[in-house]
Amino acid sequence: xxxxxxxxxxxxxxxxxxxxxxxxxxxxxxxxxxxxxxxxxxxxxxxxxxxxxxxxxxxxxxxxxxxxxxxxxxxxxxxxxxxxxxxxxxxxxxxxxxxxxxxxxxxxxxxxxxxxxxxxxxxxxxxxxxxxxxxxxxxxxxxxxxxxxxxxxxxxxxxxxxxxxxxxxxxxxxxxxxxxxxxxxxxxxxxxxxxxxxxxxxxxxxxxxxxxxxxxxxxxxxxxxxxxxxxxxx
Length: 234
Ligand SMILES: Nc1nc2c(c(=O)[nH]1)N[C@H]1C(S)=C(S)[C@@H](COP(=O)(O)O)O[C@H]1N2
Ligand SMILES: [Mo]
Prior knowledge:
The chain is an alpha+beta fold. It has helices spanning 3-6, 12-20, 37-41, 91-95, 124-131, 155-158; strands at 77-81, 87-89, 100-107, 113-123, 139-144, 150-154, 163-169, 172-173, 183-186, 198-204. The protein has a domain at 69-215: Sulfite Oxidase, Chain A, domain 2. The protein is built from 6 helices and 10 strands. The longest helix is centred in the first third of the chain and has 9 residues, at 12-20. It starts with a helix and ends in a 30-residue tail after the last strand. 38% of the residues are buried. Molybdenum atom (MO) binds next to loops. The ligand Nc1nc2c(c(=O)[nH]1)N[C@H]1C(S)=C(S)[C@@H](COP(=O)(O)O)O[C@H]1N2 binds next to loops.
């Protein structure tokens, strides 16, 4: 990877790229504890926030401003749609599944990358196995308790072993700002596929485009091969 990709504050070019994609009007609320008040005053655009350096390399993203916290004690992830046994999984239920750790670079489509982030969680395929996927199902839709953001994967993508319902990040429970208690983590794709504040998983016949796909970004967001980018980690 070259030096520019490693550097946190090299954003102007990226802003121009986003402008060319015609996404300049898509507002993203910046805030929470991760960024300082100066950062907050400058509203970034797109799936995004790349104009600002932020602590730890991650930028806090939410398309809805503040998001109400969910207590791990009462939080449930529901799985429904084209399945045999619709079910709601609490944190204790998720903990009973085999736990998988993945350490990868986290890459936002705007160019920022955080190296070697460790995620732990349940492989989505294992959860889907437990509820029984109907032969009619071809895709999976994910909803967030922010009430707005959605994502989706083809069933083939969703069954990869590097797609997790993450409950831990860097050795600790996923924080609220990073999308806890449960966050989707799609390792081979750009960060916007990794939906925060995961509350619902629905098996569908048709692929329903995700939030950013509806705004012009690639639905199939392979790192280094989509959105006109060639920045796969080396
Ligand atoms: N619910 C929700 N999930 C989201 C987003 C968002 O705005 N809302 N932004 C996405 C984008 S573009 C990125 S790069 C990552 C950023 O994760 P972070 O906020 O933990 O840094 O979250 C993804 N998941
Ligand atoms: Mo992103």
